[in-house]
Amino acid sequence: MEGLHQETRVQNEVGILTLASDALRHVKPPVVPRVFGWGGASREHAGWILQELMPGIPVAKTFRETMSLDQKRGILAQMAGLLKALQDYPLPMSIHGWGGVMFDDSGVIISAPMPSVGAGPWSSLEDSFRGRMKVALTKADMNSHLQGWRSNGVRGRIDAFIEHGLTAQFSNLTTKQDKAIIHADFCECLYNCSA
């Protein structure tokens, strides 16, 4: 998977599948694929996961014009129920930071760098946002099409906001200490959903 840090991607995916399977254990039929085996990646070797195939239907195709409003509501209600169950799932105490997850030497799921950015874990939601912004800005700095944003002051304003304005954006959040499973591509497919 291009753009993901391979050293943490496989462990993160298996860890999240493990947590999501527990969070959604009440859903029948199961919506989280079983993992039969996996091997972590390194700089020399690609990682792998052998997991259950769960065919699905792309959401855009599911919401075709011939589907009734009641059918759409039913599917959206199922999706909301799944996301709410992931959000409400109490993560193990071993996951103390924001970012990704991995397994320690005894098989316990712990905080780890986030595979999509290759950084973390962070000690707070605010630090997570700041860290991810810095990684994104570093990548943007390498883009030849964005070099003008320094001379016209845009990059300086972004840096000033991160340094001096970001804390204010998080200060009034009542859930800023909450951690939850996040499914970043949830809308890609619906698995085993009935209308």
- The structural domain count equals 2
Backbone structural class: alpha+beta
Give the oligomeric state: single chain
Describe the sheet with the most strands: 2 strands, antiparallel
| Cα-to-Cα separation, first versus last residue | 32 Å
Figure out the total of helices.
Answer: 6
Q: Write the H/E string, N to C.
A: HEEEHHEEHHHE
- Using only C-alpha atoms, the radius of gyration works out to 20 Å
Which strand-content bin applies to the residues?
Answer: 5-15%
Q: Order of strands across the widest beta sheet?
A: 1-2
Q: How does the overall form come out from the CA principal axes?
A: globular
Residue ranges: pLDDT <50 for 5 or more in a row?
190-195
* Helical content band: 40-55%
Question: What's the number of extended β-strand segments?
Answer: 6
Mean pLDDT: 85
Describe this structure in words.
The protein has 195 residues and is an alpha+beta fold. It has two domains: 115 residues, no CATH class; 47 residues, no CATH class. Helix content is 42%, strand content 12%. The chain has six helices and six strands; from the N terminus they run αβββααββαααβ. The strands form three sheets. It has a two-stranded antiparallel sheet. A two-stranded antiparallel ribbon has the order 3-6. Strands 4-5 form a two-stranded antiparallel sheet. Strand 4 and strand 5 form a beta hairpin. The longest helix is centred in the middle third of the chain and has 20 residues. The chain is globular and about 55 Å long. The chain starts with 5 loop residues before the first helix and ends with a strand. The C terminus is likely disordered.
